[in-house]
Write a structure and sequence with these properties.
alpha+beta; Tetracycline Repressor, domain 2
Length: 284
Amino acid sequence: MADPLPIGGESIVSRFGLAPGDRFSIRKFNTEPAREAVAASSSSSWAPAHYRHSRFPRLLVLYSAGTARHLGSTELTTVKNVQLSKALIVDTSLDILRNYGLADMTMRRVSAQLGVAPGALYWHFKNKQALIDATARHVLAPWLRTGFATLPEACLALRQAMLGIRDGAELVGAAVSNPDLRDELSQVLASTITGTNANIGATTALHYVLGSTAITQSEQQAKAAQAGLDPAAVSAQCTKGVEASSNDNATTGTSQATVECDASSDQFLAGVRLIDSGLRALEC
């Protein structure tokens, strides 16, 4: 059978890499059963318009070897047969965050790693900011569920949660532009403060934690890069409260290429206690 999908004078074989004899099916978008065909090296007399949906004249759906491919007017994107969910998308964004950083945690990068068309993500998240919010909420979920007795305890735990993942402070800093998440964080901190200044105290403490942690994490990652260490490994090891080191260093113990994970924690806690004691003094 002749190749049934010529595009711009090119056959599907030459343009999309299907070998002659490959079986695939083509159908009108969500309107009819798939029609099986066999790829051939020649062009076809079948017009692609015969298989286009009236509402989406530039969209064709091609199935081959268990994959779905969405064809636009100029490009074809391979799409895996995956059941997308918010949880799966967030897990994928976290994986990208750990390995590449926040700058690479884009909708296009997430969709590429999942093997789906970028537009598929927008059924679950309306934009990148919504994905950032959900990813930050996942990182902070254990902290949000924990009850804290004191402000220093809550602030230190929040700091550790952000330091535990690459670009964690930057991620949360971007997410707190969402007033709902910002209010949730503030409420947890406010619950540790007594008196009439609990809300302003919580806001002040939150800003301090975010700013201080962002500086600390930036310094850690810069030192990791200079030492030739993996930033993702540094964050993971810092979560465990140990010095971050390269694999060779861990086994031989001969190199000094390490990153101090929390050298500034004492200074950080001193700042939190200053806020805490100031709030207490206002109530006297």
